[in-house]
């Protein structure tokens, strides 16, 4: 099973990258689960034609008890991708990190992996590793690889550096390791040079280069990924290539 | 109100269960919790505290540790304690605050073990679950790490047996365990180990020698299942209360040793009519065994009232699950009598006879001196004379 956590600065395109990757893995015939770990609960919206599953936190708030069946907190999206959102507390209240820990514990109780037997699991995580809860997806038995999404913007690179440092703090533990950088272009000046320079100094490979494209926006307006809407496009090809290379690295058949 | 205790006490927590199960085994128990909490886990409900040493260490968690994670301090302090005290092993367990911030005990334990060179086991307590779940996880983790592959049965001619699920939270008086040992020995058994009162780590590590395991509280069932998977050893769940019932229990143990079949003796009881029975409140194997002895030795119809349903196999269909005090009050009012810890008395109607059955896991040391030893023949009647 290939388990990947996607991190990066808020607004940098993590959910876009994650959903496109999920769709690409699904196009390659893989059984995929995507878990959105962001209180905004919109990670899977473009796999579900603009809708979302009931976020786990919303379910708990409404019912005041744990769900008994996976179907109560999940929906099946494009290509059979099982979509789950942790959701979170009302902004400004409670503890969103704790929400992630609770969700993971609940998914364990519901035997998510044992019953669904996925080939690929993707965790789309809120902007930065701000507390223990947001590191939960990279613990042993969860993700084994991390993708950091960044553009050439200064603050995106700064956040990418912070995430990389946070992961290095766990070097003594059997936590996920950073697999590489997904370069999500914003067309800022000298963007490629800045990202390549950061990657080199951090000792990380740039494993995908996604051009800025109105195509993504157009398909997302329809609640879809480009991989679903136009699988032959250049954008789709790049995500399919990334999915293939991640599968090959992990010994899975692409 | 569901899950609310306005009048009643609550049972000891999972962390108490860990401390109690591992108390005598030469390990260091580290509880990641605020300073002062040692009394809660190991003094108020631990009769061995003043007479027997044990290494219980509280990490003295502070608000600052919560903000900054505190893993580094926990690791450093645990390593220091291991260096100073030289325990055989260590366990790390949590409390409500680390649960909220999601401390990764698996990773912390692996780090400590790599640096300390002794087995360090993570236990996933949060201070919110029953003592039975903590004791159960502690015992199973211990066996998983220390159980020897040795299965040689010996040549004594006796049937080797382990006794699983013994802690003072359910067997506060050491005479109770002495009586169980004596009943089994008289019936032709050889006691391999008692987990975990009066046996050392080597005896427990040799548990694979047993041909049958006796589970005397639900905290021993997961360990019995582990031994079943590892060695194929069957288990019988029951406590030898009452003369006839004790004899039936030892017969069942012998049958299981021969047949290899598990048997939940404590829940193998005759169906009762509602309202015609005494409700015996307590841990499921104990309360179920006492209900069985009341019926089969004394002719008193009885059912068990158990505080949780962690192990459904240990409860009979007519037993009552008492998850909160509203359930308890309702069940008491529908019974012909109630045998329970004295702290349950305030929710028992005055018209219903109440028999005092102090339980360390519920009232701690409050009534310790009055906890009866009801094992074996003739003793069960004492309970029903205490009204």
Overview of this protein structure:
The complex is a heterodimer of chains A (254) and B (387). With 254 residues, chain A is α/β, with parallel strands linked by helices. Chain A has one domain: 3-Layer(aba) Sandwich (Rossmann fold), CATH 3.40.50. Chain A is built from 10 helices and 8 strands. Chain A has helices spanning 14-27, 56-63, 96-109, 112-116, 132-135, 154-169, 191-202, 214-221, 226-229, 234-249; strands at 2-8, 32-37, 75-76, 82-85, 120-125, 145-150, 177-184, 206-210. In chain A, α1 packs across α10. The model of chain A has no long low-confidence stretch (mean pLDDT 91). Chain B is an alpha/beta fold and 387 residues long. Chain B folds into 3 domains: 14-129, Nitrogenase molybdenum iron protein domain (Rossmann fold), CATH 3.40.50.1980; 159-264, 3-Layer(aba) Sandwich (Rossmann fold), CATH 3.40.50.1980; 267-384, Rossmann fold, CATH 3.40.50. A 5-stranded parallel sheet of chain B has the order 11-10-9-12-13. In chain B, strands 2-1-3-4 form a 4-stranded parallel sheet, with helices on both faces. Chain B has a 4-stranded parallel sheet with strand order 6-5-7-8, sandwiched between helices. In chain B, α1 crosses α7 (131-146), α4 (71-85) packs parallel to α6 and α11 packs across α12. Chain B is globular. The relative contact order of chain B is 0.12. The A-B interface holds A 95, 97-98, 100-101, 131-133, 135-136, 139-140, 170, 172-175 and B 69, 100-104, 106-107, 110-111, 114.
- Which bin fits the share of residues in helices of chain B? 25-40%
**Low confidence ranges of chain A:** none
Tally of separate helices of chain B: 15
Strand order of the largest sheet of chain A: 3-4-2-5-1-6-7-8
Per the CATH scheme, the topology name of the largest domain in chain B is Rossmann fold
Ends apart, CA distance between termini of chain B: 29 Å
């Amino acid at each position: 099973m290939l388990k990947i956590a996607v991190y990066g600065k808020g607004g940098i395109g993590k959910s876009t990258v994650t959903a496109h990757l999920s769709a690409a893995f699904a196009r390659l015939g893989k059984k995929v689960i995507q878990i959105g770990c962001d209180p905004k609960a919109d990670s899977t919206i473009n796999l579900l034609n603009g809708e979302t599953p009931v976020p786990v936190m919303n379910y708990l708030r409404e019912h005041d008890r744990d769900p008994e069946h996976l179907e109560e907190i999940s929906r099946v999206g494009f290509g059979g991708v099982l979509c789950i959102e942790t959701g979170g507390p009302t902004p400004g209240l409670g503890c969103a990190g704790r929400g992630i820990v609770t969700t993971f514990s609940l998914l364990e109780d519901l035997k998510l992996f044992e019953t669904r037997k996925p080939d690929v699991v993707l965790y789309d995580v809120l902007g930065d590793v701000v507390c223990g809860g947001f590191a939960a997806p990279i613990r042993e038995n969860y993700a084994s690889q991390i993708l950091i999404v960044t553009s050439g913007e200064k603050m995106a690179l700064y956040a990418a550096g912070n995430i990389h440092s946070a992961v290095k703090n766990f070097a003594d533990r059997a936590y996920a390791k950073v697999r590489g950088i997904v370069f999500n272009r914003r067309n800022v000046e000298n963007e490629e040079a800045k990202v390549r320079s950061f990657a080199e100094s951090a000792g990380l490979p740039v494993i995908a280069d996604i051009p800025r494209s109105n195509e993504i926006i157009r398909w997302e307006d329809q609640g879809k990924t480009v991989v679903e809407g136009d699988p032959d496009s250049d954008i789709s090809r790049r995500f399919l290539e990334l999915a293939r290379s991640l599968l090959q690295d992990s010994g899975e058949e692409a | 109100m569901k899950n609310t205790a306005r009048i009643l006490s609550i049972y000891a927590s999972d962390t108490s269960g860990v401390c109690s199960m591992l108390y005598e085994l030469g390990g260091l128990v580290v509880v990641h919790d605020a300073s002062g909490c040692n009394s809660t886990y190991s003094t108020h409900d631990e009769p061995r505290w003043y007479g027997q040493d044990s290494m219980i260490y509280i990490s003295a968690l502070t608000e600052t540790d919560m903000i900054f994670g505190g893993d580094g301090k926990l690791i450093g302090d645990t390593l220091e304690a291991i260096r100073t005290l030289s325990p055989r092993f260590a366990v790390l367990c949590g409390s409500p605050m680390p649960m909220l911030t999601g401390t990764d005990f698996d990773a912390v334990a692996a780090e400590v073990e790599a640096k300390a060179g002794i087995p360090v086991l993570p236990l996933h307590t949060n201070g919110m679950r029953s003592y039975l779940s903590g004791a159960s996880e502690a015992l199973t983790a211990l066996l998983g790490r220390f159980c020897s592959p040795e299965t040689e049965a010996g040549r004594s001619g006796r049937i080797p047996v382990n006794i699983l699920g013994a802690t003072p939270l359910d067997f506060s008086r050491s005479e109770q365990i002495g009586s169980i040992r004596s009943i089994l020995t008289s019936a032709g058994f050889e006691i391999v180990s008692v987990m975990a009162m009066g046996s050392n780590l080597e005896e427990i590590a040799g548990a694979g020698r047993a041909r049958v395991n006796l589970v005397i509280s639900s905290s021993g069932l997961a360990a019995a299942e582990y031994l079943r998977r590892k060695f194929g050893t069957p288990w019988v769940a029951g406590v030898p209360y009452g003369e006839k019932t004790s004899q039936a229990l030892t017969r069942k143990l012998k049958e299981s040793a021969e047949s290899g079949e598990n048997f939940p003796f404590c829940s193998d009881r005759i169906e009762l009519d509602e309202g015609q029975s005494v409700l015996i409140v307590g841990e499921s194997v104990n309360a179920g065994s006492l209900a069985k002895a009341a019926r089969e030795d004394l002719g008193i119809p009885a059912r068990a009232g158990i505080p949780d349903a962690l192990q459904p196999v240990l409860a009979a269909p007519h037993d009552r699950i008492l998850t909160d005090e509203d359930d308890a009050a309702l069940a008491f009012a529908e019974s012909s009598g109630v045998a329970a810890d004295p702290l349950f008395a305030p929710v028992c109607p005055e018209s219903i006879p109440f028999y005092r059955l102090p339980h360390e896991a519920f009232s701690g040391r409050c009534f310790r001196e009055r906890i009866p030893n009801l094992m074996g023949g003739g003793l069960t009647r004492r309970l029903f004379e205490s009204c």
